[in-house]
Amino acid sequence: MSVEPFPDPGSPRALFGAEMRRLREAAQLSQAAVAARLGCTQTQVSRLEAATRTPSKSDAERLDRLFASAGGTHFASLYRRIGTRRGGPIWFRGWAEEIEPNALVLRSWDPLLIPGLLQTERYAHELFSRGPGISSEEVERRVEARLRRQQVLNREPAPLVLVLMDAGVLRRRVDGPEVMREQLDHLLEMSRRPKVTIQVVDPECLAGLAGAFMIAELPHGQPDTIHADSPVQGLITSDSEFVTSIRNRYESVRAWAYPEHVSRRMIEEARREWT
């Protein structure tokens, strides 16, 4: 799935792909042969080399074993550099750069915060700055990554985005009243887009207390993929058992959601309270 058709040639991801191609050709291996050894498809190998696919930690580890380069840590080092440069957790890259940008439909549920796709810059900045031990440079990288991620809403054709959020989110203070008013104004603006649906969920809904999640419906018959949140490392998978479980939970939460026009009115009322 190509997200950056013209990647920065000096980026760690481009260097990763260039090194992969160089070592493959030096070993006189075809892309298909490398794919067989990595346990993936030839297309995935091609995209890694072209830097249009973000490598995973397992990709790096398998390539280090395959080419036995630099004491077996060459690709692992490049993988860590990708994480340092892009901002945000490395494990989330595959979702933000490959799954989300290609989705036809994105469904989300958040019981605690405004979803990342709909956060304003100042709201996101405050959230990241409260992370334990985080540097100001890392905060800026993560905010930049979040805003870049939101560009999926402006693509043509845009995905259908179906957002569920707990009513308490509207009154959970993040920074000051000005930031909250700006954030709720942004929600109202986004709710007017024809392909964005925002519904507030009754706080008595217990089905969603297990945590936030997203479901991506992908094109060309690809299986749906889910992202389930965690304080340490979220789960990203297309395993049918997990996807079915999350889809069922989404429907359980949606049963407690207010209609769009009622939800919009609730956002407006909460916005007036932030004075």
From TrEMBL:
Q: For this UniProt entry, which residues form the secretion signal?
A: none
A GO molecular function annotation here is: DNA binding
**CDD domains given in the database record:** HTH_XRE
Q: Note the SUPFAM superfamilies from the entry.
A: lambda repressor-like DNA-binding domains
Q: Which residues form the HTH cro/C1-type domain?
A: 20-63
Which InterPro entries does this entry report, sorted A to Z?
Answer: Cro/C1-type_HTH (IPR001387), DUF5753 (IPR043917), Lambda_DNA-bd_dom_sf (IPR010982)
State what protein this is by name.
Transcriptional regulator with XRE-family HTH domain
Organism of origin: Sphaerisporangium krabiense
Question: What's the source species' lineage?
Answer: Bacteria, Bacillati, Actinomycetota, Actinomycetes, Streptosporangiales
